[in-house]
């Protein structure tokens, strides 16, 4: 907030009457009802109203002049966030103190201010924004989480199954309180989904790379495959290769009453340590029908 004396254009030695006259002079030019659609005039009106409200409080003016608080009402320097819990600079739209000085103004202007005060007293509270980080599987399966609000209250949040990264949940009436008698605002919670070590999401499908052994690839097998809801047995076809894609129906993301699939891409993994028997077998192995896995690449190059 700017220096209140500078905002009103008065000296630091100004009397309360001089401050009031300066305020009236500015306000009659800048009031939003007299400048519809003029955002700059509205912002200036807020500034002069806040400055008047500040300087009209003898104790706050004294402490400001003494260098104990700044123009926002914050302590210097004992409480870095004083304004958050000690009232700070009051918004002239949240109380009627800013309108009291117009009691002796002309009736039309006073009526404008009274109407404005009545409207603001019924104004809805501000929406409050939060960011909630959740695990990948919590996003897929749904979960119940709890977040802490700045004033100490705990808020339960139901995470619907299938929620996506960046999606915003709206909790009605869990936001800021109205400055008057209006309804409370909403809590808007942006969801951030942490990546999973091996699952990824493709729309409502889940993708995963599944390592298999050379023997399982060559001879076929049944192996355990992970899904968001637990492990299942997956049949590996005989003669599978790296890149072979298998589909697990209904093991994907549940959304709108329907569940996607899980797409399992096989990865043939050789033993980490040398296997003499395997090396000896492959050295002597002669395929019955010779094949060249790079033949198509050679033909197109």
From TrEMBL:
Region (Disordered): 30-72
Molecular-function annotations in GO: unfolded protein binding
Highest taxon, organism lineage: Bacteria
Coiled-coil regions, chain positions: none
PROSITE patterns attached to this UniProt entry: DNAJ_1 (PS00636), DNAJ_2 (PS50076)
Domain J: from-to ranges: 3-68
GO cellular component terms listed in the entry, alphabetical order: cytoplasm
Basic and acidic residues biased stretches: 57-66
GO BP annotations, alphabetical order: protein refolding
InterPro entries for the chain: DnaJ_C (IPR002939), DnaJ_domain (IPR001623), DnaJ_domain_CS (IPR018253), HSP40/DnaJ_pept-bd (IPR008971), J_dom_sf (IPR036869)
UniProt protein name: Molecular chaperone DnaJ
Species annotation: Methylocystis bryophila
């Amino acid at each position: 907030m700017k220096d209140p004396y500078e905002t009103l254009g008065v000296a630091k030695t100004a009397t309360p009457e001089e401050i009031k006259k300066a305020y009236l002079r500015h306000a009659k030019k800048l009031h939003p009802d007299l400048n519809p659609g003029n955002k700059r005039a509205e912002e200036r009106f807020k500034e002069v109203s806040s400055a008047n409200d500040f300087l009209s409080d003898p104790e706050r003016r004294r402490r400001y002049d003494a260098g104990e608080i700044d123009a926002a009402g914050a302590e210097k320097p004992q409480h870095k966030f004083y304004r958050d819990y000690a009232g700070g600079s009051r918004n002239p739209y949240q109380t009627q103190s800013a309108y009291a000085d117009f009691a002796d103004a002309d009736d039309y202007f006073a009526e404008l201010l009274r109407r404005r005060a009545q409207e603001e007293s019924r104004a809805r509270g501000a929406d409050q924004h939060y960011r909630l980080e959740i695990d990948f599987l919590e996003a897929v399966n749904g979960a119940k989480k709890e977040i802490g609000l700045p004033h100490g209250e705990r808020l339960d949040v139901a995470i619907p199954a299938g929620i996506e990264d960046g999606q915003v949940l709206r909790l009605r009436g869990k936001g800021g309180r109205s400055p008057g008698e209006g309804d409370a605002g909403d809590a808007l919670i942006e969801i951030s989904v942490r990546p999973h070590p091996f699952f990824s999401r493709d729309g409502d499908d889940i993708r995963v790379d599944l390592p298999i052994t050379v023997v399982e690839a060559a001879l076929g097998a049944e192996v355990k495959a992970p899904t968001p809801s637990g492990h299942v047995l997956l049949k590996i076809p005989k003669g599978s290769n790296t890149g072979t894609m298998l589909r697990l129906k209904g093991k994907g993301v549940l959304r709108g009453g329907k569940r996607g699939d899980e797409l399992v891409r096989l990865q043939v993994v050789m033993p980490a340590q040398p296997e003499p028997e395997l090396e000896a077998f492959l050295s002597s192995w002669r395929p019955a029908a010779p094949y060249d896995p790079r033949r198509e690449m050679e033909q197109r190059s």
